[in-house]
Amino acid sequence: MRIMTSYLRVQKPLPFINFKSITRAFSVAATKSPPSKAIIYSTHGEPNAVTKLVSVPGIEVKENEVCVKMLAAPINPSDINRIQGVYPVRPEPPAVGGYEGVGEVYSVGSAVHSFSPGDWVIPSPPSFGTWQTYIVEDHNVWHKVDKGVPMEYAATITVNPLTALLMLEDCITLNSGDTIVQNGATSMVGQCVIQIAKSRGIRNINIIRDSANPSPGRAGVDEVKERLKNLGADEVFTENELEVKNVKSLLGDIPEPVLGFNCVGGNAASLVLKFLRHGGTMVTYGGMSKKPVTVSTSSFIFKELSLRGFWLQKWLGKDKAEESRGMIDRLLALVKDGKLKYKMELAPFEDFNTALDKALGKHGSQPKQVIKF
Amino acid sequence: MRIMTSYLRVQKPLPFINFKSITRAFSVAATKSPPSKAIIYSTHGEPNAVTKLVSVPGIEVKENEVCVKMLAAPINPSDINRIQGVYPVRPEPPAVGGYEGVGEVYSVGSAVHSFSPGDWVIPSPPSFGTWQTYIVEDHNVWHKVDKGVPMEYAATITVNPLTALLMLEDCITLNSGDTIVQNGATSMVGQCVIQIAKSRGIRNINIIRDSANPSPGRAGVDEVKERLKNLGADEVFTENELEVKNVKSLLGDIPEPVLGFNCVGGNAASLVLKFLRHGGTMVTYGGMSKKPVTVSTSSFIFKELSLRGFWLQKWLGKDKAEESRGMIDRLLALVKDGKLKYKMELAPFEDFNTALDKALGKHGSQPKQVIKF
């Protein structure tokens, strides 16, 4: 249960009675971390209302621990859901926000030899509480990453790109020349799916929202299609464009998809199912429309479709730390080679509230918000 | 494609121009089958309207063929759907109705040594065209069965009981002590699931329709529950009884089900999903309510449920003839031991139209109709 330990640890500096920190205050003086600033929430609720910036005093860095000065951490939808209290696995408040990010090693405990000050590290598997300027955690929590990639990529490489990579590799065996179909193609996972599929020779069909009622600031359909095709999309359709009797007639010489990804639900999920070939699989990893997935009986019986879900946090909980670190290194190598990119906006820590509003969709469609500490 | 060959063969005696039978008329005289009576349909449509009884002349029994005098054959829902033209794999009319049944060997071709007159045989895998009094087919089509079971069981052992057995054995690995949940528990597959599960030490939770608006002749809820419990049901609930916040509170000491079977769709499918444990699988094999299956996003992601379908005809098409014959023998052994029973009504062939009406639901809920030739 390292995640929970991690959570307890990040709570320690908060001004609540904590017997462990009282005990520590009487122990022999050791290297201390610098004072930290953290975004915390003391109760579940709407993130604008319940989050606040607090100062926390430095704590002892014990012999097996590493003190990391955080460089950047994103605001992911799941971070928001955890603050709202609607995510099934979440720290109990009071808690520090955030789940992934990248930092620079500031100091190491006396028994730590695998890290040196200046190294870039990410919590891997991710840990609760990355929205703070200094974190002290056991050396096992940290995974050293290549400093040759932009910090915002190192900060965001786990939650979304790793989901995309795992869905392409862990659900069914895909071969070069196979086809996948996905909705929500402009999402960060969607963009990663396109590029990773492209790098593996896998054809990809993409479904995006219609241009009707575009969000303020949302790019036009043609521009979105162009952007996704530049990433490696074979085909991009709006939901409206798929209101035809036989969507497969639109595939041309592209083979029928064997695998589909759904992060929207409702009609957008039905469109993924329509594209799938006999015996195909649809993996649900999100539900942006808040509508359920509806499947006809004949899809199951006569078309032999299979439906399942994917949840990174659960996968990581299956003793996958080592495997996930190898995959993260592969993803960062793709970033370094220019084969994996996605839109982000770096937001100074002091502008956290604005970044949060953007992440909450209060300013229309916006790039992924990444806090720069 | 033995099934299609079989279909072509049963068409041969029909009074349409058929070059092969013309050719045969000039070949050397051989043993002929007796004249036969058959229920045929010359076009797709409502079964009452399009089926008719015809007489067909006897045909030559070639050296590798077996002439079978049919004893009994059921009217299954899929037979009706084939006549209606709404089943995805079906013979093109004109065709003889029926897909499974049992017969007695009447005569064998000169090269056939594995069967003798008087043997009971079933077409295995099933073949189109069992609603006729004599069938001549290659010896490979036939599987000899134990004459120690009632003919109506031998006639019906494939389509429904084999589906139940395969769903319990082929979807996931079930161990003694595991639990399954199913809706449509009074269906023939449902009754078989209960008894086969019972014989393997698998707990079973059953969902039946509500007593509101019962069909004429439909037994009361208490009577149905009693009957299913006598077959081996651990629990039986009506859909209304499951309108509670947490259906699992009704399970007592029964473990949460790992596998669910759905042959209804709509709310009855949602109830199966509610019962399933984390990571469970729901297999859809029918859609009696004609409503689709609706699944929340969180069921896929956070509860990690998997959904798939099962279709016997497809499974049999995967070169499973030998395997299926072994399973049929196991099922008939259960019948012989009194461990597998289900309600049927034998209908004389001359009363086919009444039996068809009953199978079509025109007289309320009725036992499975089995034509006795």
UniProtKB/TrEMBL annotation, chains A, B:
Sorted alphabetically, the keyword list is: Fatty acid biosynthesis, Fatty acid metabolism, Lipid biosynthesis, Lipid metabolism, Mitochondrion, NADP, Oxidoreductase, Transit peptide
Which GO MF terms does the UniProt record name? enoyl-[acyl-carrier-protein] reductase (NADPH) activity
First-listed, main subcellular location of the protein, grouped into a coarse class: mitochondrion
User: Which Gene3D superfamilies does the record cross-reference, listed alphabetically?
Assistant: Medium-chain alcohol dehydrogenases, catalytic domain (3.90.180.10), NAD(P)-binding Rossmann-like Domain (3.40.50.720)
Localization per record: Mitochondrion
Q: Where is the Enoyl reductase (ER) domain?
A: 45-371
Q: What is its EC number?
A: 1.3.1.104
InterPro entries referenced in this protein's UniProt entry, alphabetically: ADH-like_C, ADH-like_N, ER, GroES-like_sf, Mito_Enoyl-ACP_Reductase, NAD(P)-bd_dom_sf
Question: Catalytic activity annotated for this protein?
Answer: a 2,3-saturated acyl-[ACP] + NADP(+) = a (2E)-enoyl-[ACP] + NADPH + H(+)
One GO-annotated biological process of the protein? fatty acid biosynthetic process
**Per the record, GO CC terms?**
mitochondrion
Similarity comment = Belongs to the zinc-containing alcohol dehydrogenase family. Quinone oxidoreductase subfamily.
What is the protein name stated in its UniProt record?
Enoyl-[acyl-carrier-protein] reductase, mitochondrial
Give the classification, highest ranks: Eukaryota, Viridiplantae, Streptophyta, Embryophyta, Tracheophyta
